């Protein structure tokens, strides 16, 4: 995977150069230290992931789920004909005041929704 002369990137030490390679390991020269790795770029053979790459890896942070809670007022107002009922949803204080002027019969509900950020 790596050969002598390759420029490599260590997630712990930054850029280095492979100064030696055998069937089992490679040596990498960094600014102030020389390190040995397995031929597939791991510090220990038992490591799950390599420490060395041919290019600087890009780390993508997964989106997290964020909970939002809002309060709304729902007013049921009879129309002019007195028979049909129209429901209005009010989401802020000004709208809530309008709902109160139209009728003093409304319910307050809590709404919870989720977004990814």
Summarize the structure.
Helices cover 9% and strands 47% of the residues. It is mainly beta and 117 residues long. It folds into two domains: 7-53; 65-116, no CATH class.
Question: Can you describe this structure?
Answer:
The protein starts with 6 loop residues before the first strand and ends with a strand. Helices cover 9% and strands 47% of the residues. Strand 6 (65-78) and strand 7 (85-90) form a beta hairpin. The chain has two domains: 7-53; 65-116, no CATH class. The strands form two sheets. The chain has a five-stranded antiparallel sheet with strand order 4-3-2-1-5, with no helix packed on it. Strands 7-6-8 form a three-stranded antiparallel sheet, with helices on one face. The protein has one helix at 93-102; strands at residues 7-10, 14-21, 25-29, 34-38, 52-53, 65-78, 85-90, 106-116. By secondary structure, the chain is mostly beta strands. The radius of gyration is 32 Å and the shape is rod-shaped.
Main attributes of the structure:
117 residues, mainly beta, 2 domains, five-stranded antiparallel beta sheet, 1 helix, rod-shaped
Strand fraction = over 45%
Main β-sheet description? 5 strands, antiparallel
Question: Care to count the β-strands?
Answer: 8
- Shape descriptor reads rod-shaped
- Helix/strand structural class: mainly beta
Number of H- or I-type helical stretches: 1
Give the termini distance in whole angstroms: 37 Å
Overall mean confidence score, pLDDT: 82
Q: How is the largest sheet built, in terms of strand order?
A: 4-3-2-1-5
The amount of helix comes to under 10%
Domain tally = 2
Rg: 32 Å
What's the order of the H and E elements? EEEEEEEHE
Low-confidence stretches: none
């Amino acid at each position: 995977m790596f050969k002598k002369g390759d420029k490599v990137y260590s997630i712990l030490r930054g850029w280095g150069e492979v100064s030696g390679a055998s069937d089992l390991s490679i040596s990498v020269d960094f600014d102030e230290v020389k390190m040995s790795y397995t031929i597939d770029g791991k510090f220990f053979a038992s490591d799950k992931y390599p420490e060395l790459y041919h290019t600087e890896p890009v780390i993508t942070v997964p989106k997290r789920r964020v909970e939002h809670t809002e309060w709304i007022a729902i007013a049921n107002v009879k129309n002019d004909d007195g028979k049909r009922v129209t429901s209005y949803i009010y989401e802020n204080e000004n709208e809530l005041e309008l709902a109160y002027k139209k009728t003093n019969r409304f319910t307050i509900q809590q709404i919870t929704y989720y977004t990814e950020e």
